[in-house]
Design goal:
This protein is mainly alpha-helical and 263 residues long. The chain has seven helices and two strands, in the order αββαααααα. It has a two-stranded antiparallel ribbon with strand order 1-2. Helix 3 runs antiparallel to helix 4.
Length: 263
Amino acid sequence: MFTSLALRGALKSASIVLRESGIISRLNGTTPGLPLKSGACLSHLIARPANIGTGSFSIQPVRNYARAARKRKPVFQSQLSDLPPTMLKMDYAVVPLAQTTDDLVKRILTLELASHSEKLRLKKEQLIAKVQRDESDRSSTEVKIALLTVRIRNYQEHLHKHAKDKANKRRMLMAIDSRKKMLKHLRMTRYDTFERVCQELDITYTFPPEYYRRITRRWLTKKALCIKVFKEVQKQKAELRKKIIKSSHTQADQPKITAAVPQ
């Protein structure tokens, strides 16, 4: 079975070479051309006649296919880029001996060789320290907003590299909705704290729409009909207004006829 397949492939390749060589020689005008079957393509070959008298030729493959230029993604600014690599980790920041160790140990204790989760943990503590009410505050609305902000930005950085990750995209949208609810509650109860939190965490608050409605095909059709009727009514009113203005102008142009009073 394998030998028959190999023989069949060898015969097929030999026939293709013979057919192409006949075409090339026919183009050069040295030998009579061989018949060409429909569907044969020589776009990947270039013939260079070396010795036309002897009938030999050289074939050079061409690999310069047209490729679409790939668009480079813009560089995403990570929220962890402002953490210097010489900063100590959270567990060793309060240890005085960590400042006097040699360089090799200090590389291990600093953020130079730290993992992503350790850097993220330090960033959470930095944002919490900006908005917390006191040093022991870990459960207020401001602290929860700070934690959600770090999580949302981490999801955004991940989705910039892996755009097809639907699960993390769903988690990011859920976190955004939770933060919107907390910001709305904070804005209605304590507006000064709301402004301070948005300024410290660099959050742009967008107001929600006043009216929510599920978009259906029936609702879209009804809306289009109402818009069409409204435009038609406005058009009729404009025509009626023009007629009224025109009639008033004609009445003003007519001369006033005073009736003769008998004496």
